[in-house]
Amino acid sequence: MKFLKKYGFYFLLLAVLSDFLTPYILGIFYPELNQMTRVMSVFGDVASPVRGAFLVWSVVSGVFFVLALPAIYQSVVKTSRTLAILLVSAIGLYGIGDCIFTGLFSIDTEQASWTFSTWVHNIGSGLGYAGFLIFPLFLVMLYRKTGEKGLSNVYLVLLIVSLLSAGVYGLARIPAVNDLPVLDKIGFCQRISFFFNYLPIVIFGVDRIRKP
């Protein structure tokens, strides 16, 4: 446990890097997949030529996120036990729900109805993304509590941008409007949204590593 508390934020940054690079590296081996119009989970579809690599990679990324949890809790608990639990829960939900569950329960786009695996995948992904999305909110609360208004304002701006990009991604999933410009590129919308979700985590991880 001491090892995880000491190096947990390195695992956090490694998790973000691993998760972020997944579609771009695997896309090299799946050139026929249009990443502008297809979501990342399609890499794990039963018909995907990189399915095995994607599923394993997703689990590995999720494990890295989970390994970061003790360090996150330890670094915040002295300020607020409640915020420590909320931050750990947010990252834990993403690591388990959107990474590990993605690797263990893949989707099948060729099935007319959802299979059990698809249900678990989508529910886990939804819960994980929710944790991913509200993580900056807890950081705003944390740094306001510690009196670090500059960092609090940075995370507030990132939270707003993250919510806006998530809103665009959400609209891209609605059939009634997803034929509009930009919204017809759901893969692009998802990747932009995820980038702004990753950013607060990276800044938080780097900040904690730099602090003695």
UniProtKB/TrEMBL annotation:
Enumerate the UniProt keywords alphabetically: Membrane, Transmembrane, Transmembrane helix
One of its Pfam families is DUF998
Entry keyword Transmembrane: yes
Keyword Transmembrane belongs to the record: yes
InterPro entries to which the protein is assigned, alphabetical: DUF998
Q: Which domain of life is it from?
A: Bacteria
| Protein name, per record | DUF998 domain-containing protein
Q: Which organism is it from?
A: Listeria swaminathanii
Lineage here is:
Bacteria, Bacillati, Bacillota, Bacilli, Bacillales
